[in-house]
From TrEMBL:
It is an enzyme of class 1 (oxidoreductase). SMART domains: 6PGD. Belongs to the 6-phosphogluconate dehydrogenase family. Pathway: Carbohydrate degradation; pentose phosphate pathway; D-ribulose 5-phosphate from D-glucose 6-phosphate (oxidative stage): step 3/3. GO terms for molecular function: phosphogluconate dehydrogenase (decarboxylating) activity. Catalyzes the oxidative decarboxylation of 6-phosphogluconate to ribulose 5-phosphate and CO(2), with concomitant reduction of NADP to NADPH. The keyword Oxidoreductase applies. Homodimer. Its EC number is 1.1.1.44. Residues 178-468 form the 6-phosphogluconate dehydrogenase C-terminal domain. Keywords: Gluconate utilization, NADP, Oxidoreductase, Pentose shunt. It catalyses: 6-phospho-D-gluconate + NADP(+) = D-ribulose 5-phosphate + CO2 + NADPH. This is 6-phosphogluconate dehydrogenase, decarboxylating.
Length: 476
């Protein structure tokens, strides 16, 4: 037994993670259900480091130093359970099983409990950054016990992305916390992508600009507050020309967005916890609308094009308005996502450090961005910050763009351009800062038809009005 870490599941992600470990000087045990992938890894990358290849799971486990550290990188769901079932009888007390796939956090809670009962550590770990990140340094979000992190953490930190010398990996919290945070990361990614897509559409329709021209605008934006991986690749994609037709690449791609499900999980959990993650929800529904083919055909045929026509006199001012609206909407989407982490942390007893999450997302992952530093700083000022938007930096940043944000949302509505994430973010902003909400009327209605009771602004207690009788009020 000489390998310090093992990886089972050698499709794109596992293969690249194994190479990343090896390139950092670790002896890596490698295994895959079908041996061909193991052989191909050794043939292609065997020279990059010290690999111990095994055809059987038993040999793979035997090749690991104790306490064994086994990274499982297979398709999330039933495959993960199948691999765990095969592994567990071969392991001994104190060994660590790391699930680095995209598991749904309730599954991770279940698996952690089952393995803990057998004296094993189960570390549900979010890994972001796609295949490129897995090879060159991903953002890593490990859950599980602090005890397991003591020996596993330094290895994961070693292979993670680094920003200013700081690893993009830290202990997240017990059982499902790591996979939960990865799920919210993906939800925020959905919101960020949708906001960028809406900004592109507004520039396209408002200015009649070409994809390449808009690509140049995004490239300019990437030198300021919006600097991020997603803005950078957007500029790149928009400037790409399709070889077959000579058209802008984006113009030949079918406009039906797909999803693998992490956005849906995030929204479902937002509903479960009662956290208004409207940006993520709108982004998920926008993908669903894009894929609603018969509905779109019926809508195009039957719904009149009544909208106005754009009249933009100052091109540069409009571009700056869209940039400010994008930044403000993005702040809202992130604020909502961090709210969801806080709510889940309280609900499931995880004690997640939100500032640390922003820190480990600065590199390696899809939502890496300059602006995450601002989030870390906000939670350094106040670790219990109830609303990220209310931090002094973000209030300033949003106030600076507020008039522009309102103009952009209004123009989108007047000109019939769907901007669900821009407009719902603005509605959230106005809702969360409102002195008084019409929720008072909702409560009155609920008491009227269902005797659901209400509280009063002027005294303590719960009350019900006899709506069908004399309308006297009783204390409930
Ligand atoms: P896939 O998600 O495509 O899974 C393929 C791997 O799962 C192969 O090694 C396959 O073995 C193995 N596998 C399956 Br399928 N069923 C199995 C079973 N019953 N028993 C044992 N092994 C089984 O691979 P991936 O794209 O590398 O992703 C791996 C994980 O990483 C997933 O959970 C994914 O959600 C997550 N993730 C992916 C990305 C990304 O950018 N792709 C990013 C972040 C996280 P075989 O070779 O024998 O068929």
């Amino acid at each position: 037994a000489r390998a310090q870490i093992g990886v089972t599941g050698l499709a794109v992600m596992g293969r690249n993670l194994a190479r990343n470990f090896a390139r950092h000087g670790y002896t890596v045990a490698v295994h895959n259900r079908s041996y061909a992938k193991t052989e191909s890894l050794i043939a292609d990358a065997g020279h990059e480091g010290d690999f111990v290849a095994s055809e059987s799971m038993a040999d793979f486990v035997a090749s690991l130093e104790r306490p064994r550290k086994v990274v499982v990188m297979v398709k999330a769901g039933a495959a993960t359970d199948a691999v765990i079932d095969e592994l567990v009888p071969l392991l001994e007390e104190g060994d660590i099983v790391v699930d680095a796939g995209n598991a749904h956090f309730p599954d991770t809670i279940r698996r952690e409990e089952a393995l803990r009962a057998k004296g094993l550590h189960f570390v549900g770990t979010g890994v972001s950054g796609g295949e490129e990140g897995a090879l060159n340094g991903p953002s890593i979000m490990p859950g599980g016990t602090r005890e397991s992190y003591a020996s596993l953490g330094p290895i994961l930190e070693d292979i993670s992305a680094k920003v200013d010398g700081t690893p993009c990996c830290t202990y997240v919290g017990p059982d499902g916390a790591g996979h939960f945070v990865k799920m919210v990361h993906n939800g925020i990614e959905y919101a960020d992508m949708q906001l960028i897509a809406e900004a592109y559409d507004l520039l396209k329709q408002g200015l009649g600009a070409s994809a390449a021209e808009i690509g140049q605008i995004f490239a300019d934006w990437n030198t300021g507050d919006l600097e991020s991986f997603l803005i950078e690749i957007t500029a790149d994609v928009l400037q790409h020309v399709d070889a077959a037709t000579g058209s802008a690449f984006v113009d030949i791609v079918l406009d039906q967005a797909e999803q693998k499900g992490t956005g849906r999980w995030t929204v479902q959990n937002g509903l479960d916890l009662g956290v208004p993650i409207t940006g993520i929800a709108e982004a998920t529904f926008a993908r669903a609308l894009s894929g609603s083919v018969p509905q779109r055909a019926a809508g195009r045929a039957a719904l009149p094009a009544d909208a106005g026509t754009w009249e933009i006199t100052d091109r540069d001012a409009f571009i700056e308005d869209v940039r400010l609206a994008l930044y403000a909407s993005k702040v809202v989407a992130y604020s909502q996502g961090f709210d969801q982490i806080a709510a889940a942390s309280a609900e499931y007893g995880w004690d997640v450090d939100r500032g640390a999450m922003a820190r480990i997302w600065r590199g390696g992952c899809i939502i890496r961005a300059r602006f995450l530093n601002r989030i870390t700083e906000a939670y350094e000022r106040d670790a219990e910050l109830p609303l990220l938007l209310a931090d002094e930096y973000f209030t300033g940043a949003v106030a600076n763009g507020l008039a522009a944000w309102r103009r952009v949302v209004a123009q989108a509505a007047l000109n019939g351009v769907p901007a669900p994430a821009f407009s719902s973010s603005l509605a959230y902003y106005d809702g969360v800062r409102a002195e008084r909400l019409p929720a008072a009327l909702i409560q009155a209605q609920r008491d009227f038809f269902g005797a659901h009771t209400y509280r009063r602004t002027d005294r303590e207690g719960t009350f019900h009005t006899e709506w069908s009788g004399d309308r006297a009020e009783q204390e409930a």
